[in-house]
Write a sequence for this structure.
């Protein structure tokens, strides 16, 4: 049974023209960034829900799994700040509800291992496996699951979630099924990365607060500063003012000290903000 979907994000099966279908250009690529920040945030969340819900369904429909689950990275109650974890928020094919909204810290269970190791993991018999922790045995048994594959949704070093493909039989996972789930995970990760980019805005350049220098600049310091603010190099300033390069460097260092800045860029910005140069 598939979790009820928001009507705005539901994806009809077999609808390749739907924007969240894996074959659709916007699902497989990175859509353009909406101009309105609030609209961008809402659109990003709608895309995220649709892609993850669609992924759980397609693991069942296209990869031969009995159950598809998707864990979404979230802060877990009682966890240490900075620790990784996820919650199973999307599912398809489940018979019981013990795997719904289950918190999974990184490293625990098969999905927690995939989250921590940033790599696919699988077992032919979850309940008999000796390479994983068994905190979730009761929930797995309630859905009569045995074979299980988990694949992280990776975009560089960022994990957007973990997809589970589970079967109700004890079988080894072959390359065909692993590759099929991996392709779906990669396509979903690209769509999620594109949606996440909508919420990112370019940082505004840091402009020093307009301040008057603690000590007034000398005439020569002001002249050197005025030419430096136009982008001229020290040799060019020296040639124009009839000074040596070392003298120009000394005047610039003195002006920087008086204005409380650390480099030539901050010096030019502070000089303009303070009205010392036009």
């Amino acid at each position: 049974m598939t979790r009820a979907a928001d009507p705005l994000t539901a994806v009809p099966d077999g609808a390749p023209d739907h924007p969240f279908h894996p074959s659709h250009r916007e699902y497989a690529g990175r859509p353009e960034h909406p101009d309105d920040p609030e609209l961008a945030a809402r659109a990003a969340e709608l895309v995220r829900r649709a892609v993850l819900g669609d992924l759980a369904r397609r693991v069942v429909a296209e990869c031969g799994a009995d159950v598809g689950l998707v864990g979404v990275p979230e802060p877990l109650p009682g966890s240490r700040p900075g620790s990784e974890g996820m919650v199973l928020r999307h599912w398809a094919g489940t018979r019981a509800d013990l795997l719904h909204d289950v918190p999974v810290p990184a490293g625990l269970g098969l999905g927690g291992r995939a989250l921590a190791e940033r790599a696919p993991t699988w077992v032919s018999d979850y309940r008999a496996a000796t390479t994983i922790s068994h905190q979730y045995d009761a929930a797995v048994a309630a859905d009569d699951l045995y074979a299980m594959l988990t694949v992280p949704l990776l975009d560089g070093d960022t994990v957007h979630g973990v997809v589970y493909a589970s079967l109700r039989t004890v079988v080894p996972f072959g390359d065909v099924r692993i590759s099929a789930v991996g392709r779906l995970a990669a396509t979903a990760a690209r769509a999620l990365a594109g949606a996440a980019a909508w919420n990112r805005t370019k940082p505004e350049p840091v402009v020093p607060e307009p301040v008057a220098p603690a000590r007034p600049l000398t005439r020569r310091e002001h002249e050197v500063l005025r030419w430096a603010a136009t982008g001229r190099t020290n040799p060019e300033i020296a040639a124009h003012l009839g000074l040596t390069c070392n003298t120009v460097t000394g005047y610039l260092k003195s002006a920087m000290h008086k204005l409380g800045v650390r480099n030539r860029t901050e010096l030019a910005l502070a000089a303009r903000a303070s009205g010392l140069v036009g």
